[in-house]
Amino acid sequence: MKKTTLLLILFTAYFANAQQQEFHLDFEPGTPSGKVATWNNAFGGTSPVEIITNPDADGTNTSTTTKVLKTTLGEPLTAEFWAGIDNSESGEALGTWKIDMGVTSNLTLTMDINKNYVGTIGIKMATTSNGTTFEIGDQNVDNAVVDEWQTISFDLSGINPVGDLTNISDMIIFVDYTKTNGRVGQPSEYILYVDNIKWHAEKLTDPVVPTCDDGIQNGDETGVDCGGACDACPIPVTSLSIDFESATTFIGVDGASYTDMVTNDVTNGINSSANAGQISNCNSGPWSHIQMDITEGIDLSAADKGFSLMVKGPRATPILLKIQVGDDHAVNHEVGGNYTTPNQWQKITFDFTSFTTTDRSKIVIFFDITAGASGNSNDDIFLVDDLIFDAFSSLSSTRFEAAEFNFYPNPTSSSWKIKTKSQTIQSVNLFNVLGKKVLSLSPNSTEVEINASELNTGIYFTQIKTASGVNSIKLIKN
């Protein structure tokens, strides 16, 4: 009986401890901790996190090839004391674990650090719902070792046992947990390198394996579900031309209505197009608008871009053109303009040259956003035409008349020829019905031939630029 009891005790002890394992974050390639996308700035105040080769092989970390985590606190005198790095936004990139306070090996956490400042390194762990498991800021206080690798240790035996010690998924490191909002006589920016974070715990789940259809940017992806091992990310558009002669993907939102291919009833001025888009009930609600998705994103990186839009309506009104990231209306760029020629077409330009992003993927257009609905519903009906995104300097001129050039044959199965009477054609851009540029030419002559033999059958729009302005025409490939 004694032997049986002893074996049962030994088996129980072995089984309990067998569930424990060492977690080791070494930031090496191919590991969850070695992906820079796993880490992010915690609670503000830090520059982008980097994973780099050890820049200072000395002290307790003498390898010249090992990878380390680097974070920079750019304004330490004003940053909050909880500024640092964590993996909370990457979900369960490190898996989940449970800390059993009854297991001695679980009561210590160590890490290698190298920093250029005197400060207190703090740590925190949190659950999958970002609830704090424990937080330590009163150990390794005012650590004075500078510009040399050292191993620091945290005693976990005093952490709050009432805290949720299960389903932990987040590891947080505080750059300088002083609660003094910065120190005097220190570097203008704090630089912290971290390596070999080690602790013991019971593993609950393995790290989540990124997929190409989970709706988030993870793994080696360079965008959401694209890049790296996934399909290549769409290339943001650098120019766009929509002439509303055929159906578009614009829709009315928040009470506004949108109709494609409405007959243009004023063709004797600057806009001789046959059709236009129509927005009705443009002021039925505070945020009534029309919008269109550009899934590839809009490339403003050249810092010389803008939009132009033809507008005709029954009254003068301010117009706001906004581009945003998907449905996130708060992440946007917006530029205003004014329509001032009631019942006549007016070309309005929107200067986006101060922006350099490439991820805005929805065009949103508001009419008279500051006012309520009109007493007469006809006063809230506007036509739009010739939406162009291109170099802003090319958008300021009124487009030249269609009568000044000829294009033929149309439709064609082989090529189109475009001739002007006297104007030099500076550039020709050809777009498919989705607004994607498929061909670009710079003829610098009064005529140009567009080879259509390699194009798919369908409708195309060409944007022709001369010294007089920009014009768009519809071309058909048989």
UniProtKB/TrEMBL annotation:
Transmembrane segments: none annotated. The keyword Manganese does not apply. Residues 408-475 form the Secretion system C-terminal sorting domain. Residues 1-18 form the signal peptide. It comes from the Bacteria. The keyword Calcium does not apply. Keywords: Signal. This is T9SS type A sorting domain-containing protein.
